[in-house]
Amino acid sequence: MAADIGLRVYNESDKKSMVNVFDCVNKMRGDRNGIVSSKDLYKYIFKVLKNITDSASTSDSKL
C-alpha cells in the first residue's frame, strides 16, 4: 500500500526526485496506526520505489 501511494506521488511529481517514504507511511497511519512497524519494512518500500523509479527513468532515457 505504501509503495502504491509512493508511486502515485512520484507520477504526479516532476519525476526527478525520490518519494519520501516516511511521509507516505505517516499519511497512511491516519487510517491504520502501526501499518509499517519495522525498519525492514521501510527499507523494502524504499527498494520497491527505487526499482520502479530507476526503471522508469531508464525507459524514458531510451526514447
From TrEMBL:
Occurrences of domain Tyrosine-protein phosphatase (ranges): 6-49
Superkingdom per UniProt: Eukaryota
InterPro entries in UniProt: Prot-tyrosine_phosphatase-like, PTP_cat
Listed GO MF terms: protein tyrosine phosphatase activity
Gene3D superfamilies for the chain: Protein tyrosine phosphatase superfamily
Pfam family for this entry, one: Y_phosphatase
Name this protein carries in UniProt: Tyrosine-protein phosphatase domain-containing protein
Provenance organism: Paramuricea clavata
